Amino acid sequence: MEEISDQIFIESSFAGVSLGAINWPHGLILIDSPFRVEDIRSWRSALLNMGGGVDRMLINLDAHPDRTLGSRAMECSVVGQEKLTHILRSRPVTFKSQGLESGAEWELYNTFTGIRWAPPDLSFSDSLQIHWNSEPLLLEHHPGPASGASWVVIPSHKLIFIGDAVTVDQPPFLGFADIPAWLLTLEQLAANPFQNHLLISSRSGIVTQKQVRRMSEFLQKINAILDELSARLYPLDEIMHQIPVLLKAFEFPVERHELYAHRLKWGLERQYYRRYRPTHVEPDE
């Protein structure tokens, strides 16, 4: 666990997501959850040693299974943008990976059945203030990476947990993304008010403004590829040819190549169908 500001910590050693913990006098505010049982135990044990107030609150930055599979096991109140409630309640309780599909981390593990999801106990539409300290913590809806995607903003520390808005060492999840909205979110993140803020990605830890710009350039490239493929006779066949080139934008261990190739393939296919064949794709999560 790394303390990145006074009583604000991140943990990046677990599979799937980088977690946050804010140790304020009223209690712990947690940002996202591990999904593996052993990681949940380890994380809860580490949190017990932090002291502070007795109350706990868990904020889910979106509904992705990598960050919500373990939410109920954290045994605390859950907070999230209002779309999370519908998404989580509509998911089946029998939830087992049959191999790589979306390229998510949880798909590497075949141990998830009978899941009891944890929809938010408290939800918000655009923004929410939490007063567990002398200074407020702000939850803000910033659409783009996923339905219900949110930021946690701590103005007094000039610090923002930005969820999946930026990924550095892995490709982003495009399957449920709204790319035009995502580009607007990144434009806002790169604006002057946030130039001196510490930015925490839920996949890559601390990120820079330069990496925010690179993510924007990558998404613009995705837009251009999809527009070009839409005019071709067999566009989905062409998608596979784009993946090796797109993966070069990210540095990762060679053993992750198959996972990330699946992630891009699945995401690009869904993006194509949503834009040009909307009757062929299921509703967004």
Structural account:
- This protein is an alpha/beta fold and 285 residues long.
- It is built from seven helices and 13 strands.
- It has a seven-stranded mixed sheet, with helices on one face.
- β11, α4 and β12 form a beta-alpha-beta unit.
- α4 packs antiparallel against α5 and α6 crosses α7.
- The chain is globular.
- The mean pLDDT is 89.
Please summarize the sheet with the most strands. 7 strands, mixed
Distance between the termini: 31 Å
For the CA atoms, what is the radius of gyration?
19 Å
Mean pLDDT score, rounded?
89
Give the key terms.
285 residues; alpha/beta; seven-stranded mixed beta sheet; six-stranded mixed beta sheet; 7 helices; 13 strands; 31% helix; 20% strand; globular
In brief, what are we looking at here?
This protein has 285 residues and is an alpha/beta fold. Helices cover 31% and strands 20% of the residues.
SSE order and pairing:
Elements: E1 2-5, E2 8-11, E3 19-24, E4 27-31, H1 37-48, E5 55-59, H2 65-68, E6 77-81, H3 83-90, E7 122-124, E8 127-130, E9 137-141, E10 150-154, E11 159-163, H4 179-189, E12 198-201, E13 205-207, H5 209-229, H6 235-247, H7 257-276
Parallel strand pairs: 4-5, 5-6, 6-7, 11-12
Antiparallel strand pairs: 1-2, 2-3, 3-4, 8-9, 9-10, 10-11, 12-13
